[in-house]
Design a protein that fits this description.
18 strands; seven-stranded mixed sheet; 16 helices; 41% helix; six-stranded mixed sheet; alpha/beta
C-alpha cells in the first residue's frame, strides 16, 4: 500500500480517512496557471514575498516558538537560534545579493562563431514541491521555500504531520502573508503526500530519510522531475590526541544534543584515536553537565523525543555500550538524557543506522589510517567533523574522505556560513542549497547565443573561399 511504502513501512501517524488526490491536482493546476501568467518572475515580486516572510517570522516569533515547544520541547532560545533567527539571516542574505545573483553572466565564444555574443540567464523552473521534516519543522520547511521564491517559482509546501502544531501555524499564516495564488500549504500525512507526488512538478525538494527519499525519487522519475534529497547518515567526529579535548567535547556536545539529538547533521558518533578515547569521556561528561546541569530533565534548554515510536527505537540502543553519562529515560514524557556510550562495538545496533537522538557512542581506533578506513568503508556521511591540531591530518581527511561537508574544530554551526553549500553525497543526499546555491537549485541556467544576421558572416551564402581567413573558417566548420 502507498501508505506503508511512503514511510518505509513505519507510518508516523494513522492514514487520513479520505484521499486528497483531487485537491492536490487542483492546487498544482492553480499554481501552474499563476506561474504561466509570469506573475512570479519579476524581481520585485520575489523580494516582496521574502520581505513578507521575514515580517511573519519576526512579528510572530512567539507563535512559532510555542508550536516548536509543543512539538519538540524546544526552548525559546533554541527556537530562535536554530529556526527563526537562522531563517531571518537567510532572507537578509538573499535580499542583499539577489540582484547580483540574477545578473546574466557573459560567456566566451570560439573564433568559428564570431562575431557573436553569449551569456547565461537564470529562469525559474515553474511549480516546486517542498516536503519538510519534523525535526526542524520551521527551518527545514521555509529555507527551501526562500530559495524557490527568490528564483521566481510557485511553491507548494508540505509540512510534516509529525510536528502538528508547527504544521498548523505554517498552514494558517503562509497563505495570509504570501501570494496565495503562487504559494500553497498542504497539510496531512501519507495519503496527502502520496497524492502530491502523483502530480507533475518542476522540482521536488525533500528533506528526510533515505527510504522515503527513494520513494520521492521514483515518483519524480515518472515525470522526469529533478529532485533535491537532503538526507542524513552517520556523521563521525574524529578526535585526535594533542588537541584541546575540553573545547572539542563542548563543541561536539553542542552539535549532538541540541534538539535532543534529532538533527540530520549532528555528530552521530565519536571516532577517538589512540589516547584521546579515554580522555574524551571525562570531557564529554563535563560538557553535558555544563550545558544541562546534573539533571537534564529539569533543564529548560533540553528538548524531548518527538513521539513514542522514536522514543522506543532510541531506548533500545541505550545498552549498546558502557554508559559514561546519561542513560536515564522516561517514556511518559518522551525524555532521554544526553547519553555518552563507551566501549562500543562497531557492529552493534547503535552503529548500524543513523541514531537521530541524544545517544553518542565512542568508537576507538589506533591511528588516523584506521579512522579514515573506518569512514570510507561506510556510506558517505552528510558531515565529517574533525578535531585535530595537525595540518597533515586535515590535509589527509580532506583528500582521502568524502562527505557532504567537512568541518574542522566545530560541529553543526557551520550551517551559519550562508555562502557555503549544504547538501549530501551518496546515501546522505543529492543537491545543495543555501545562499546562491538555492538559486542554482531552483533555477534553470539557460544558455543564450546571439549572432548577427549579416550576409558576410558564417551560415549564409558567401563568395568562394579565397582569402586566408575564409579558408580557416572553411576548415573549422
Amino acid at each position: 500500500m502507498k501508505t506503508n511504502a511512503l514511510t518505509g513501512g513505519q507510518p508516523d501517524i494513522a492514514p487520513a480517512a479520505a484521499p486528497a488526490a483531487a485537491p492536490a491536482a487542483d492546487t498544482v493546476a492553480r499554481l501552474r496557471a499563476t506561474f504561466n501568467t509570469g506573475r512570479t518572475k519579476p524581481v520585485a515580486w520575489r523580494k516582496q514575498q521574502l520581505q513578507a516572510l521575514r515580517r511573519l517570522l519576526t512579528e510572530h516569533e512567539d507563535t512559532f516558538a510555542q508550536a516548536l515547544h509543543t512539538d519538540l520541547g524546544k526552548s525559546a532560545t533554541e527556537s530562535h537560534m536554530a529556526e527563526i533567527g537562522f531563517l531571518v539571516r537567510e532572507i537578509d542574505h538573499t535580499l542583499s545579493h539577489l540582484d547580483r545573483w540574477l545578473r546574466p553572466k557573459r560567456a566566451s565564444v570560439p573564433l568559428s562563431l564570431m562575431p557573436s555574443r553569449a551569456w547565461t540567464v537564470r529562469e525559474p523552473l515553474g511549480v516546486v514541491l517542498v516536503i519538510a521534516p519534523w525535526n526542524y519543522p520551521v527551518n527545514l520547511a521555509l529555507a527551501p521555500v526562500i530559495g524557490a521564491l527568490a528564483a521566481g517559482n510557485a511553491v507548494i509546501l508540505k509540512p510534516s504531520e509529525v510536528a502538528p502544531a508547527t504544521s498548523a501555524v505554517l498552514a494558517h499564516w503562509l497563505p495570509r502573508v504570501l501570494d496565495p495564488q503562487a504559494v500553497a500549504v498542504v497539510e496531512g500525512g501519507v495519503p496527502e503526500t502520496t497524492a502530491l507526488l502523483e502530480q507533475r512538478f518542476d522540482h521536488i525538494f525533500y528533506t528526510g530519510n533515505g527510504a522515503v527519499g527513494r520513494i520521492v525519487m521514483t515518483a519524480a522519475a515518472r515525470h522526469l522531475t529533478p529532485v533535491t534529497l537532503e538526507l542524513g547518515g552517520k556523521s563521525p567526529a574524529v578526535v585526535e590526541p594533542g588537541t584541546d579535548l575540553a573545547t572539542a567535547a563542548r563543541r561536539i556536545a553542542l552539535g549532538k544534543f541540541m534538539n535532543a539529538g534529532q538533527t540530520c547533521v549532528a555528530p552521530d558518533y565519536v571516532l577517538a584515536i589512540g589516547e584521546a578515547g579515554a580522555e574524551i569521556e571525562a570531557h564529554l561528561t563535563q560538557a553535558v553537565r555544563e550545558m544541562y546541569g546534573t539533571d537534564p530533565a529539569r533543564s529548560n534548554d533540553y528538548g524531548r523525543i518527538v513521539n513514542e515510536r522514536h522514543f522506543d527505537r532510541l531506548a533500545a540502543l541505550l545498552n549498546d555500550g558502557r554508559t559514561v553519562v546519561g542513560g536515564d529515560h522516561d517514556r511518559d514524557t518522551r525524555y532521554i538524557a544526553p547519553t555518552v556510550l563507551a566501549d562500543v562495538d562497531p557492529d552493534s545496533p547503535v552503529m548500524r543506522d543513523e541514531i537521530f537522538g541524544p545517544i553518542l557512542p565512542i568508537v576507538r581506533v589506533p591511528d588516523l589510517d584506521a579512522a579514515i578506513a573506518f569512514i570510507t568503508e561506510r556510506d558517505k556521511p552528510l558531515a565529517l567533523y574533525a578535531f585535530t591540531a595537525s595540518k597533515r591530518s586535515k590535509r589527509r581527511l580532506t583528500a582521502e574522505t568524502s562527505s557532504g561537508g567537512l568541518v574542522f574544530g566545530l560541529s553543526l554551526l557551520q550551517l551559519g556560513a550562508l555562502d557555503l553549500p549544504f547538501g549530501g553525497v551518496g546515501e546522505s543526499g543529492m543537491g545543495r542549497y543555501h545562499g546562491s546555491y538555492s538559486l542554482d537549485t531552483f533555477s534553470h541556467i539557460k544558455a543564450v547565443l546571439d549572432k548577427p544576421l549579416k550576409p558576410d558572416t558564417l551560415g549564409v551564402a558567401t563568395p568562394p573561399y579565397t582569402r586566408g581567413k575564409d579558408r580557416i573558417l572553411r576548415r573549422i566548420t
